[in-house]
Amino acid sequence: MTRTLLIALALAASPLAALAAPAVGDIVGTTPEAATAALKEKGCEVKSFEAEDGKIEAKCADAEGKVSEVYIDPASGAITKIGGEEG
Fold first, then answer.
1. What pLDDT was estimated at residue 6?
2. Among candidate residues 36, 30, 71, the one with its CA nearest the CA of residue 53
3. Does the N terminus or the C terminus of the chain have fewer Cβ atoms within 10 A?
4. Which domain holds residue 69?
5. Is 12 inside any structural domain?
6. Domain presence at residue 48
7. What is the CATH number of the domain that holds 41?
8. DSSP of 36-74, one letter per residue?
9. What is the DSSP secondary structure assignment for residue 5, as one 8-state letter?
10. Mind listing the pLDDT tens digit for each residue in 7-57?
11. How far is it, in rounded angstroms, from Cα 19 to Cα 15?
């Protein structure tokens, strides 16, 4: 019974975890401090920042260790693109 309850709770929480992920259009800020805090709230721990093609690229990892490249517009602080790589 307990195992069934735990499985049901895990399945019910799965969509909520997906909602916490960063998405294109989210405003995360224009400074490293603001972007780091905003991405952390969305479950993405920032590992590094670098400039790439006029955007800010933040490499971050989720709780499962999947690394994502989050591209941020430096003028608006909006996420413009998200790419992933296995980490």
1. 42
2. 71
3. N
4. 22-85
5. no
6. yes
7. 3.10.450
8. HHHHHHTT-EEEEEEEETTEEEEEEE-TT--EEEEEE-T
9. H
10. 554 555 444 444 468 999 999 999 999 999 999 999 999 999 999 889 999
11. 6
